[in-house]
Specification:
Layout (H helix, E strand, L loop, with lengths): L1 E10 L2 E7 L4 E5 L6 H13 L18 E9 L3 E9 L3 E5 L2 E3 L2 H4 L5 E5 L10 H15 L1 H26 L5 H41 L4 E6 L7 H10 L1 H7 L10 E6 L2 E2 H4 L2 H23 L4 E5 L7 H10 L6 E5 L7 H6 E7 L2 E5 L3
Parallel strand pairs: 3-13, 3-14, 8-12, 12-13
Antiparallel strand pairs: 1-2, 1-4, 4-5, 5-6, 6-7, 9-10, 10-11, 14-15
The protein binds adenosine-5'-triphosphate (ATP) and magnesium ion (MG).
Length: 365
């Protein structure tokens, strides 16, 4: 899968921009704050209809403008034109000039593996960040996953709100809580299965990558979940036991919304025992594993975005990573430090120089 071109209108610091990309490697260079990440963010937005940065979706709309537009041609088996229009309270998406009314019918079509310097902090970060990452990956593999997860979150919200009702009104019916709990467990079990299978797949690949990078065997990703090894009836018992506590706290203390993922190296939790370098190598292995899963399980070459990795990793490591990535994978690399980029990478790449929202292409010799 390749993105052949990108057209922006009022996206971040770009009033108007039109770029054509290399189906191989693309280097985006420029000083801090010039708009490098904004370009790869636009590609990401075209796939996910939202950014990987920030919580408010509207921040990508250029200041003092009403809407932002991102368009791009994606080459998969065929060429297709994708377009999204983002307004403050509205999103519109089109494929080949046809409006797509349900967002879930649009998502999962453009496949991206994103690797940012932020990801390198993933092991130290909160469970929520790790869940988000796996959710994004899984939703690209299965459209159904996203639908089930959305439903789960809806039921969870209803359950939490009903727990609060029960706290203030002791006479409120307990039957409704039971119905919500059953729904939650059923949806939760479906999510659990997706996650369990996905982690098993990841584990087929990350150990070999870690060995290539660090010369050590034994990296695994563990799936920590309240639902591990439990069936519906057993889970309902757990919720029953916790019911009074849940009512007092006004929140659901058990469920797949509490899931977490943990890297283990030779049996040791990398969060507690791993060095900075080991943690980074584990994340790199995970990212390389993601590409493998796309290739081997879906026969798709995802678009790879490496945003600002040079600020966190040394040149040797990055050039190493790049040698592991097959030439067929279209890659976008942003950096302030062109001097760190190897001669061969420069030679293989189309180079875009960004200065305050203006992009010029420069020769790669
Ligand atoms: N909604 C917006 N409207 C206009 N400009 C914006 C908007 N959001 C961000 N910007 C501008 O975009 C610029 C940041 O762009 P970007 O994050 O792409 O920088 P960068 O080149 O990746 O920098 P760094 O090397 O520091 O990562 C900032 O100057 C910021 O003011
Ligand atoms: Mg940046």
């Amino acid at each position: 899968m390749k993105i052949l071109n990108l057209k922006l209108l009022n996206f971040r610091n770009y009033e108007k921009l039109e770029l054509e990309f290399n189906p191989g490697k693309n280097l985006i260079i420029g000083q801090n704050g010039m708009g490098k990440t904004n370009i790869v963010e636009a590609i990401y937005c075209l796939a996910f209809t939202k950014s990987f940065r920030g919580s408010k979706e509207e921040v990508v709309i250029r200041q003092n403008c009403d809407l932002a537009r991102v368009e791009g041609t994606i080459l998969d088996t065929y060429e297709s034109k994708y377009r999204i229009i983002l307004k403050r309270n509205e999103k519109k998406v089109k494929i080949n000039n046809t409006n797509i009314n349900r967002l879930t019918d649009y998502l999962s079509k453009i496949n991206i593996v994103l690797f940012t310097s932020e990801d390198l902090k993933l092991i130290k970060d909160t469970p929520n960040t790790r869940r988000k990452l796996i959710n994004i990956e899984l939703s690209q593999f299965s459209n159904d996953y996203l639908k089930v997860l959305t439903l789960y979150n809806k039921v969870l919200k209803q359950r939490n709100s009903y727990l609060k009702t029960l706290y203030t009104n002791g006479n409120a019916s307990q039957d409704y809580l039971q119905i919500l709990t059953e729904q939650l467990v059923e949806l939760g079990l479906r999510i659990h299965k997706y996650r369990e299978e996905f982690i098993a797949k990841i584990n087929q690949y990350i150990e070999k990558h870690y060995f290539k990078i660090a010369g050590i065997h034994g990296l695994t990703l563990l799936y920590k979940s309240d639902y591990n090894n439990l069936g519906k009836e057993e889970l309902l018992q757990v919720y029953k036991k916790e019911k009074n506590r849940d009512i007092i706290l006004g929140t659901t203390s058990t469920g797949i919304h509490r899931d977490d993922y943990e890297f283990s190296l030779e049996g040791n939790n990398l969060k507690d025992y791993g060095s900075e370098g080991e943690q980074k190598n584990a994340i790199i292995s995970l990212k390389l594993g993601e590409i493998d899963i796309f290739k081997n399980e879906k026969e798709i070459e995802p678009i790879l975005i490496l945003d600002d990795l040079f600020s966190e990793l040394d040149e040797e490591k990055i050039n190493n990573i790049l040698t592991f990535i097959h030439d067929d994978i279209q890659t976008f690399i942003t950096t302030t430090e062109l001097n760190k980029v190897s001669v061969s990478l420069k030679k293989d790449s189309r180079i875009f120089e960004v200065e305050n929202g203006t992009v010029t292409e420069r020769g790669n010799q």
